[in-house]
Structures are given as C-alpha cells and as structure tokens.
Amino acid sequence: MAFSLLALSVALVAAAPPQPPWPSPLPAFASSWFGGSLDYKEWQNPSQMAQLSQYKAILTSWILPTNHTFTNATAIASEQAVKLKEAFGANGTTVFTYQSGILAPAFYPENKVLMDDPATYGDFFLRQNDGSFMSSETYCSQTHTTPAQDPGCLSYMWNWCNESAIDWYVHKVLGGMVTDSSGKGLNFDGVFLDNSDEFNPRGSSNGACDAHNATMSVHIETAKFFQSVGKWPIFSTTNSGASMQAEADLLWAAGAGFSKFWESWNPSLGAIVQLYNETEYGLPTVVHATSHGWPFERKPAISLNDSLASFLVATGGAPHSYFQYSSGWYDSDFHWSPLFGQKYGTAVAPPTITKYGNMSAPGEIWERKFSTGVVASVNCTPPDPHKFAWCKGSITFP
Prior knowledge:
Largest sheet: 8 strands, parallel
Structural class: alpha/beta
Helix content: 25-40%
Radius of gyration: 21 Å
Shape: globular
Strand content: 15-25%
Order of helices and strands: EEHEHHEEHHEHEHEHEHEHEHEEEEE
Number of helices: 11
C-alpha cells in the first residue's frame, strides 16, 4: 500500500515562525561541523582551515578555549569565532561559538568571579542540601585532567531559579562572548548552547523550583538579548513531539527565534518522523549524526549514507536545516564527504510512504523526490525483538 504523506500529526502555527537572519546555503548542501582541538586553534592551522572551508555552518567547541590552560576562555572563544567568520563569511558560512546551557565552568572569567565569591553570589548556583555546591568534572575528564591539577576545569551548576543568575548569564557570560566593550555585536553569527534544556534542581536545596519555567526564562531572555545584538541561538534540546512544539510556540510568541540542535540524530523511524514534523512546523534544525549513535549505546554502526538519506527524506531541503556526521567531537572525528558537495535541491512533494509486512507492526519505505532529480529513500524494516537495525538509506542521482 503506497500513499503520499500529507501531515504527521503536524498542527501548523498561525504565523510564520522566526527564521535565521542569514541567507539559506541552498542550493549548496547545508553541511555543518562541530569539532575542537586541545593542541591548536583552528584558525591558526592551515590544514584544518582547508577542511573547514568546505562547510556551510561551523560550530566551535569548548575544547578549543581550554587549550591546556583553563583560563581566559571567553576571549579565546570570541577570537576564534571572529577569525573563522572573517575567513569564510564571504562563502555564506555561518559561525557559532560554544557555551553550556547548565554548567558554569571556571575557565570563563565571568563565571570564576562568581565562584570565588560565594558569600555574595552563592545563590547563583545549585547547592546540595548540606550547603555544598553541586558541581561537574565533565570538562576535566574529557580533557584527561582533574580539578586538583587544573582547577579551572571544574564547573558549578547554574541555578536558573534565580533571576539574577539568569541576568548575569545572559548579559555577562554570553554578552562577554558576543559583544565588544561598547556592546556592539562581534562579527559572527551566534552561540551553540549545549545541554540547554537539562536544568534539573531535584536533589538540591531548590528542589521545589519549576525547572521547565526556569529553562524557558533562560531561553527567552537569551534569544531576546541575542536579537538585540544581531546574534542567533542554537539550543540543544531533547524535547520531542507536542512538548517540542509547545516550547517553540512559547519562544516564538515572545518574539524569540532559535534553531534546535539534535545530538546523536539517527536513521530510525521515530527520529525521521520527529524531524519531519519539526521541519514542517517551521523549526530550524542542526542535526548531529554520529557513526555509532550515542557513543555509549551498544547498537550497530551507522553509515553516512543511511543518515544522510534519512535527513534528506525528513527535511526535504528546508532552507535552514543543517547536517553533521562524525565519530565524535574532535577535529579528527570529522571527515568531508563528496556527498556534502552535492546540490540536492528542494523536495517537490511530501514523502511517499509504503508499508509492508505485518500491518500491526509494518516496515516502512519513505521516498522523496527533489527538484534536481535526486531521489532519497529509506527502508525501515519491521521491528525485530531479537535484532536491532537502523533504517537503510539510498540516494539516487539523475
């Protein structure tokens, strides 16, 4: 049985949602990169710059600002973004720097000044019930060090239940990254805000705080401030379905535009349906497909072809939907593919879906045709409780 997909539980918003202010990379493919290095700054490495010159969106990592020093990261990150924008902006490449959406690493001076004065700013961070600060050593472990060796790698956890903490984060931490001393926006496009919907005060002294409302306050204030200085936020979110639409509606109603970053996007039927829905809803996206799914899952490896075909079927060449593929988050984990240099065009119609097998749990073949004559398809086989399989992709060129 074959039929054309008209809508997958999509309720279109009444007005067009805010879109990124830069031109779409179309007809070029919207390829994206999100790497980092502990050993060099990308803009000072000719070989790495040659690689980066091919991408249409560059997201720099927190790994760069540390560079073994764990100090002065704001200035280092801003300089990197400005240098990359100067190098590639004429090619239509967008450039974003990095900031955590929940952690306050001490390697940013705007955070350290708070951490060094707990008597004044202690309520800016979450505390354990015994009064000690909730902290994270993730930036230490990812760079093979410890707080004892490098105190700057330690992070406290922001308390988004405190409006003063939100104001400091938006105007001091982020403001210090994206503006110069006069308050004018620097020459790059925005900030990728990692883990931005994972604020969780449970188990803290502020356990009664409404985490969702607090997170939305951060998102709205960030987006509105960015808009005032010509910047765009990319929020890394885990919401899906109706909850993602509700979050988007809330931000859009406040006049706040944003893109969604989807970590470890994969060629599964559920992910394809969700990405299709979000694209049809008008949500700009950046999806990061990894070659092994989430690195800690014991699932089969994922091929670039399967991921890219699934992305094309789901987004249909939407003007601000970007695609990344790598084996990790370091420079050496990203490799340019000739598939990124193709011009796929835009979809001429919604996907066509063919269901087969047992109709109570069928397999599904999604196919989508593009204006260039390219045809992308994915075959998502019927669920098998004994063997997991990703959807298999195919891209046919005219």
